[in-house]
Amino acid sequence: MLHASHLSRSHVSTSYAFHTVACGIESQIMASAATVSSSEAEPPKVNASEISSIKAFTESKGATLIPSTYHSVTDPHDHVAHDFAASIPVLDLSLLTSCDPQIHTIAVHELAKACAQWGVFMLINHGIPESLTEELMNKSREFHDLPLEEKKEFSDEGPFTPIRHGTSFYSESEKVHYWRDYLKVITFPQFNFPHKPQGYREVAYEYSQKIRGVARNLLEGISESLGLGSNSIIESTDFEYGLQSFFVNLYPPCPQPHLAQGLPPHSDHGLMTLLIQNGIGGLQVKHDGKWVDVNPLPNSLVVILGDQLEVVSNGRYESVLHRAILNNTDTRMSIAVVNGPAPDKEIGAAPELLEKEKAVFKSIKYRDYLEVQQKTRYADKSGLEVIRLNTQQ
């Protein structure tokens, strides 16, 4: 039955994939033209502290060049394996939650393969109404369209501030900046959200609750795929009190997308991230040393494994590196919900796994891990390297 899902995916996504490829080719041609026309020009002298919003900056300046502090591409010749995009696994949540033992067992096996081989997959039949995700996207765009003055009350004051609006990653402590505006909200264990635009808070609450239900089902399946009880990861991470972080990312068109990034290669800090976007491509994941475009199926969730799941699985299911690339024609928006352990829970490998193998990472409170990740370079998997044990001894 999972095989049938793959077949339907191929049929559904043919026109969608063609549109994505065509847009990608057009963007590459325009980017190349921009490179030629501006190769000898000097980037504008702009103090990054003056840019409180990329959206506002691009709309007010109408610039054809970007400030040099946004030149974040380190290897312009990174290989992108376009042929691999169609190989990203597609899983059906209704099969994973089936009461039929045979169907469920097959689904758990497919989930194990996706986690071990890719660290990312698309989830269909997840039970979240398409009308809800569309309304959430519309309200999120309305928020980003609010005048800056109206969003000042949400200015970013640190990683544990309940509601944060800003630009880049954390621009005050960066030397290189990223072409992104964001809204970051802690939505669990206590729900927070902006009170504007009207109706945004209510839509976001419903969506965040449904996402927690999906994440719980996936964690139960992942536990089983590791040979553990279905509640093992949920109990060992205190997921019932787990931190849920809600990210609304806006990537405006960039005049020089070959020089800048929306976000650099990084892994997420939680157990898993569930992502939707507005139909504009830009998400890429690292697979077998190559970058792969993620072209989500309509009404699917993109599931990205995070650092805490790599720790809990004792390294069996690795968090996946991913990045956000840019284009010079369309605004991309993504909504990523990071589902993590309880902030004060000390997280290590599932106890049952350590009965037969050595720990790969030292245990650390999730709250402390977040601080480690904030203090290390926001790129690659630097946070995990800090807590990795020398297993050769």
UniProtKB/TrEMBL annotation:
Fe2OG dioxygenase domain boundaries: 242-341
GO molecular-function term, one example from the UniProt record: L-ascorbic acid binding
One Pfam entry name: 2OG-FeII_Oxy
Entry keyword annotation includes Metal-binding: yes
Keywords of this entry: Iron, Metal-binding, Oxidoreductase, Vitamin C
SUPFAM superfamilies, A to Z: Clavaminate synthase-like
UniProt cross-references to InterPro entries, sorted A to Z: DIOX_N, IPNS-like_FE2OG_OXY, IPNS-like_sf, Oxoglu/Fe-dep_dioxygenase_dom, Plant_2OG-oxidoreductases
Membrane spanning stretches: none
Entry's family note: Belongs to the iron/ascorbate-dependent oxidoreductase family.
Name the record gives this protein: Fe2OG dioxygenase domain-containing protein
Organism for this UniProt entry: Clitoria ternatea
Organism phylogeny: Eukaryota, Viridiplantae, Streptophyta, Embryophyta, Tracheophyta
